[in-house]
Amino acid sequence: MAPYETDDSADTGERDELRAGRRRAARYIVPVTVVGVAAATIGLVPALADSGDPNLPKITAQQLIDKIAKSDVQQLSGTVKISTDLGLPNLGGLESSMLSGATKSGDGSSADPTTKLTELATGTHTLRVAADGPDKQKISLLENAAEYSLIHNGKDVWGYDSQSNEVYHGTAADSSKSDETRATPKGLTDEALKSVDATTSVTVDGTEHVAGRDAYKLLIKPKQSGTTVGTISIAVDSKTGLPLKFTLTPASGGAAVVDVGFTQLSLAKPAASTFDFKTPKGAKVTTEDSAKKAAPDHSGKPGRLGKPGKSGGDLGKGPDGLTVLGKGWNSIATFDTGGQGVPSGSASGGGDLGGVISSLGDKVKGTFGSGTVFSTRLINALVTDDGKVYVGAVTKSALVKAADAAK
User: Fold this and answer.
1) Nearest CA to 343 among 372, 319, 315, 367?
2) Which residue of 105, 158, 207, 296 sits 20 to 30 Å from the alpha carbon of 11, by its own alpha carbon?
């Protein structure tokens, strides 16, 4: 996520201390307090708040970041509300049908966290969370007449989907699963506090009650124009320094894009049985190894991207050197797919899929040529007709300018 700095009134010494506090915060962020989904593109409904703001001692942004750095909450249980409003188009059930078809064809398990937790990327959801140190965490996604649970206990990671009665068994060393423990206020705060520079203002914006606890509000604002990010507000527990709520509001205004918050929270040690798992009778079990063997060949299909400036995984013919343009909140990731741009209905053999994909974007032209911009309320992407991609939390015009400058 984009870097930040303290408010303009802070002198050089204060900024240095703030940077040191930020580094300590990132270093000591307690992974057991985070529940994960991809991307930092998750929205959440505001946590239930008591009426009236608490009267707390005044604190500076630097001191509040230091409080987060010193936070050492290892044990907790509670309920987290998640609601996403990215402004994505309605695909009429197309996505769920494709996922269902992949599962039925043996390409995956409905209990695999990488599949199941993508549901958090849209709509409103309720999670029950529990943690007891770095080796024991549990997340339960509550659904209509069903429940999905993800349990980490020692070296084992279990996923269970009660609706399909399917089980997924992996190991804690599987990084693709650990990346998914990043969606509570603590995890998102960690991302927001990764670096410091002059592109952001950080201030304390009053106090509030969250899940029955008194909290300070840390406010992060980009100083740059052209970004789709408006503000990030983080409620920090006044006693423990634990982030209780994380809200990202877009520059365009309206409802929050991301708003993660505890509605209930206990810092007592959860019962040991909370993290036990026994395979239900008749359940279909998929192991991490068997899932990898059953996975289809992804040649020519989207894959994981490499680090900036290095060649990544397959995407079309493979991205050609993912790089980052610009700084701070105006950063734009760009790479070359090695192929063509967005297919039209005729270009995709007359099928409907190419036409549907093309219709979801806006056609644009510039010095770079022509292409299609796919927009959400936070992340926008330009795919040029010759296969180059520009992605960032920036406006459509910023993407076109970046493509023109790179021509």
Assistant:
1) 372
2) 207
The 10s digit of each residue's pLDDT in 273-325 is: 999 999 999 999 999 876 555 554 444 333 333 333 333 333 333 455 789 99
HEC states along 138-206?
EEEEEECCEEEEEEEECCEEEEEECCCCEEEEEECCCHHHHCCCCCCHHHHHHHHCCCECCCEEEEEEE
Domains of the chain: 12-288 (2.50.20.10), 323-406 (3.30.310)
For helices 12-28 and 185-192, the axis angle rounded to 10 degrees is: 140
**DSSP codes, 299-341:** TTS-----STTB--S-STT--S-BEEESSGGG-EEEEE-SS--
Bridge partner list, 128 = 79, 140
Predicted TM-score (pTM) of this structure? 0.74
pLDDT tens across 106-141, in order?
A: 456 888 888 777 778 888 999 999 999 999 999 999
Sheet holding 388-392, edge to edge: 323-325, 332-336, 388-392, 380-384, 369-375, 362-366
Residue 232: what residue type?
I
- Edge to edge, the sheet with strand 258-266 lists 200-210, 213-222, 229-237, 243-250, 258-266, 75-84, 123-132, 136-143, 146-153, 156-161, 166-171, 284-287
